[in-house]
Amino acid sequence: MDTLSKKGKKDEEWISDFLTRGVKEIIEEDSVRSKFESGTILRVKHGVDPTTSKLHFGYWVVYRKLRKLQEMGHTIQLLIGTFTAQFGDPSGKTEVRKERTADEVREVAGDYVKQLAKILDIQKLTVYWNNDWFGNMKLGDFFRIANHFSVWRLLERDMFVERKKLGKEIKAPELMYPILQAYDSVELKSDLTIVGSDQLFNEIQARNLQRAYKEEPQDIIALEVLVGLDGEKKMSQSLGNVINIDDEPHEKFGKIMSMPDHLIPHYFELLTDKSYKEIEAMKEGMKRGELNPKDLKEELALVLITELDGKEAAESAQKHFQKVFREKGVPESMKSFVVDKPMILKEIVFKSGLSESMSEAQRFIEQGAVTLEGKVIEDWKLEVYKKESIILRVGKRKFIKLVFNK
Amino acid sequence: MDTLSKKGKKDEEWISDFLTRGVKEIIEEDSVRSKFESGTILRVKHGVDPTTSKLHFGYWVVYRKLRKLQEMGHTIQLLIGTFTAQFGDPSGKTEVRKERTADEVREVAGDYVKQLAKILDIQKLTVYWNNDWFGNMKLGDFFRIANHFSVWRLLERDMFVERKKLGKEIKAPELMYPILQAYDSVELKSDLTIVGSDQLFNEIQARNLQRAYKEEPQDIIALEVLVGLDGEKKMSQSLGNVINIDDEPHEKFGKIMSMPDHLIPHYFELLTDKSYKEIEAMKEGMKRGELNPKDLKEELALVLITELDGKEAAESAQKHFQKVFREKGVPESMKSFVVDKPMILKEIVFKSGLSESMSEAQRFIEQGAVTLEGKVIEDWKLEVYKKESIILRVGKRKFIKLVFNK
Predict the structure, then answer these.
(1) Residues B47 and B171 in one domain
(2) Domain RNA-binding S4, which positions (chains A, B) (predicted)?
(3) Bridge partners for B76 per DSSP
C-alpha cells in the first residue's frame, strides 16, 4: 500500500481543525485519526448527483475538505452519479423527484469538473461515473446486493419518516437509492467519505455492505450543511438561495453583501480557514456593535472570491459593488438586451432575464422596483420602444441596457 | 382477435359454477362475465414459483379451473418463475426465504410440465419462464418499472404487516417482488389470471402497471386455499401436510383416508364437480350420522385418483388400502431396499426413505411405531442383517421390503 510523503503527515493541531471545522459527525473518529497517522494514502470517495448544472457554495464546504486531503496526498475519487441521478435521491425532499434519462444527466454534469477546477486540483482527481457499473448491471445482480438490506432499516431515513408523517409518496426506486450509494463505496473501495450530513444514513449503509463484501468499512465525515442566502434553509438550487461557484465575481460579491448578518460567522467557519478564536471575537464584536457587519461581509466576500477567482477579480468586484451601492450609481459595464420590436415592459423585464416569470415581472413593476433611466415605472403594460439605448433597473442590483433595433 | 368456437361458449349455469366454486374473490366479476360472453379467446396467466420439485393438491385447485378454460378454448399461459424464485415471494411466510441460483430453480422445476400432464392439456399450454425477460433486464429498466409503485402501497401486503408486527425482517428484494409479478402480466398481456387468494395483492398491482403500459388491466379470480391434511393450515410442502400430484395412487389413497372428516366437503368443493346441492346433502348426512365419513373419503379418493391416474389405478389403490387397513395385512407389492452391509435399524429407516432424518427415525423406533416382520422393535441401535428378505413397517401405512446382499 502506498504511503504519504513527509509533507502529507500533518500535526495534531491541523488534524484537530480538520476534524472539527464544519463537522457534524464522524464515524469512527478514532479510525480516521489512526488512518491519518498511519501515513497510508487513503481512497476518499465523494459522490455528487447532478441535479442542476451549477455547483453552489454548499458543495464548496465539502470540496474545501477534499482539497486539504489532496494536499496531504490522498486520492480523491469524485463519483458523479450518472446512474443514480436518473432516479434521484430523495434527500431532504418531501416530493418525489422526476425521472430523467442518462443523456439528460450527462448534460447537466457537463462542466462540473471545469467548475471544480476553481477548488480542487483536477489533475489529481479521479473521476468515476456510476453509470459505468449500474448502467449494465443486471437485475439479478442488483437483487443479490439488495438482499443485504432490510426494508425496515431503509425506512428509518429521516426524510422517509417525514414523508410518512406528511402522507406523501415514496416511489420504490427512492427506497432503493441508499443501496446504490452503498454499492458505490464497495466498487470504489472507499476508505473515507466526506459528505453533507444529509447523506450520513446512506453512507452508514455502505459500511454494512462493505463488510458483507469483506472490505474494510469506510469512515465517514459528515459536514454541517451550509445555510442559504435566505438565512434559514439549506442552500439549494431549487430554493433559489444560492451562490454558485461560477457566478460572476461581482454577482458573488453582491450576493454575499445581501446575506443576513447572522450568517457571517457560519460562512467564515465553513468556507475559510479563519480560526475559531477569531470567529468568536467577530461574534462578540458584532454583538457589542464594535464591528460593522457590512465590513465583515466585504472581508468575507474578498476572501471567498479571491480563493475562487483570484485577487484581482475580487478587488474589481468590490469596486463595482461600492460604485453601485455606496454611490447609488450604475455599474460601468452591464449586459445588453436587444429589443427588436415593440414590447410591453413586463415582457422586457422577463425576457431580459431580470425576473423568473412574467407574473414576477408584473409584481416587480407594480411594487415600484423597476426604473427606466432612473424613473420608477408602475405600469407593466407600458410599451417601450425608443430610438436610443436606455437603462432598465430592477431592484437594487439588477441593471440591463436596452438596445433598440431601428 | 381470435374468437372461441361454438363449443367454447358456455351457458349461464356453467359460468356461475365456474365463478363460484372455490372462488374467494373476483376482480372484476362483471368484466370476467362479459369477456366470457364475448367469445374472445383470452390470454390467461398463471404463475408458479418453483420452490419444491413436487406440485401438490393445493395447486390442483387452480389447475382444475385452468383445465376448464382450456376446454373452452382459451389460451393458458403457464409462467414458471425461474427469475422470481431465485429470490422468493414472501407469500404467507414470516421468515425471509433463502436465495437460490437460476440453475437451482431450473432443477426444481425440472418436471413440472410432466406433473401437470395429469391435469392440463400440455399440448395446448404455452409455457413461459420469467428469467427470459428478467434475466437480462438492466437495472435502469427495472427502476423505470418500479417508479410506478409506491412503497407505502407495497407495505400494505398482509404478510409484510405481519412481519412488522412480529418484528421480523423484510429484505429489499422481497418488497420488490410484487413489482416483478406485476410486470409478468404486462409481458404476457394477461387478460385474466387465476391464483390462490394469497396472490391477490400482487395481481392487483399488475392491473395498475398494465394501465401504466396502456394495456387493459387483467381480471383476477382468486381461489380459496386448500387446507392440508392436518385440517388446519394451508397445504404446503414445508408444513408436510400435502398430497402430491405424482404421489403413487396407493399413497394418495392412504393420505385421503387419513384426513380429518371436516375436510371432506372442502375437498369435494375444490377438487371435484360435485354440485353444491350434493355437497350440502353430504354435510347434513354426516351431521345426522347417516353417512359414514370413511365411505365418503373412499368415494373422494376414487374420484380424485381416477382423474389423475385413471380408473384402474384408483381401484387398485382402493384394494391395496382395504387389504392393509381393513384386514390389517400387508400390501401385495411394495418397494425394496437393498441392505448391502450391516446397518443399525435407525439408519435403515432413514436411508430407505421412511423417515425424513436420522433423528426422526430414532423417534419413530423409540415410540414403538416400527416393526420388523410384525414385531415391534424399540432398540434403534439394533443391527439388522439377515439371510432372507424381511418386511419393515413404519406407522400404519409405510412398508418396505428389506433385501440383504449376501
Answers:
(1) yes
(2) 348-379
(3) B44, B125
Rounded Cα distance between A250 and A258, Å, is 12
Report the gap between the CA of B58 and the closest CA in chain A (Å): 29
> Would you say residue B239 lies in a domain?
no
Would the CB atoms of B147 and A171 count as touching at under 8 Å? Answer: yes
Indicate if A281 and A349 belong to the same structural domain. Answer: no
Instruction: Lowest mean pLDDT of A173-187, B21-35, B321-335, name the range.
Output: B321-335
Global ipTM: 0.73
Question: Are A172 and B152 within 8 A, CB to CB?
Answer: no
Instruction: Quickly tell me which residue has 446382499 as its cell.
Output: B405
Q: Which three cell numbers stand for residue B145?
A: 418499472
Residue that the C-alpha cell 468568536 belongs to: A280
The alpha carbons of chain B give a radius of gyration, in whole angstroms, of 24
CB pair distance less than 8 Å for A175 and B151:
yes
Contact A329, A396 (CB under 8 A): no
Bridge partner list, A194: A221
Partners of A79 in the β-ladder: A47, A128
CA distances from B286 to A168, B261, B267, B269 (A): 55, 9, 15, 16
B135 CB-near residues (< 8 Å, 6+ apart)? A138, A139, A140, B82, B83, B102
Tell the residue number behind the cell numbers 475580487, with chain if given. Answer: A314
Residue of B nearest to A133 (CA): B139
The amino acid sitting at B392 is L
Sign of CA dihedral A314, A320, A325, A331: negative
B87 and B51 Cβ atoms separated by less than 8 Å:
no
Minimum distance, in Å, between the CA of residue B202 and any CA atom of chain A: 15
Residues B135, A140: C-beta atoms closer than 8 Å: yes
Name the residue range of residue A354's domain.
336-404
Greater pLDDT, A333 or A363: A363
Averaged over B67-92, what is the pLDDT? 83
Last residue of one domain, picked from the residues B326, B351, B374: B326
Q: With CB atoms and an 8 Å threshold, state whether A172 touches B99.
A: no
What grid cell was written down for B258?
A: 387419513
Number of domains making up chain A: 3
Of A134, A151, A169, the CB nearest to B139: A134
Average pLDDT, chain A: 86
Q: Is the pLDDT of residue B378 over 70?
A: yes
